[in-house]
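The instructor's notes for this session suggest beginning with a concrete chain rather than abstract definitions. Hand out the sequence below and ask the class to guess, before any prediction is shown, which regions might be ordered.
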Amino acid sequence: MGQVRADRIWQVSSALLALSLLLNVFLGVEVKRLRIEAVRNRQADPRIGSILRELPVKDLNGNGLRLQFGAIPSLAVIYAFSPRCSFCAQDCKNILALSDQFRIIRFIGLSTSESRLTEYLETRCSCSFPVYQALSPTLILDHDLQATPQGVVVSPGGRVVASWVGLLEGQQLARIRSALETQLRQ
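After discussion, reveal the predicted structure:
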């Protein structure tokens, strides 16, 4: 009786393992297909000189909205981050100092993940500017915002005038400050 039960447990475990492997393969293929589809359907790309008209996002309450950049009368800085990114938490003081230095510029936080976002904002990075969540992983791919931390400087009318990926410090910080000052003088 004990041997029959052990054999049955072995059969069920083997079947579940095989099913799990098949599911993982299927999901891997599906993720690859979605990435290829997102690249084919790119609507915007935050490269310098490109136009960023709008971003479909949701606020921290989950309400969907569209941030319009084509109609803004002033500079905007979009700061993309992830609550799970240790570099983003480290970079928080840098982006907050930059937003304090350039109060005339509209700063917008864009979380690439809603996982633990509220906790992150309460404990690790209390932003002094509005923070939104990306509506979908496709938005992140469409606007090339996978790497975090990342920032995009958008001029009036929606033209991308500067961008950075990684920690905002040293020469990179000096370059972005210079770009902001140049744009403000125009």
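Then share the key points. The beta strands are 54-58, 64-68, 76-81, 106-111, 131-134, 150-154, 160-165. The CA atoms of residues 51 and 159 lie 4 Å apart.
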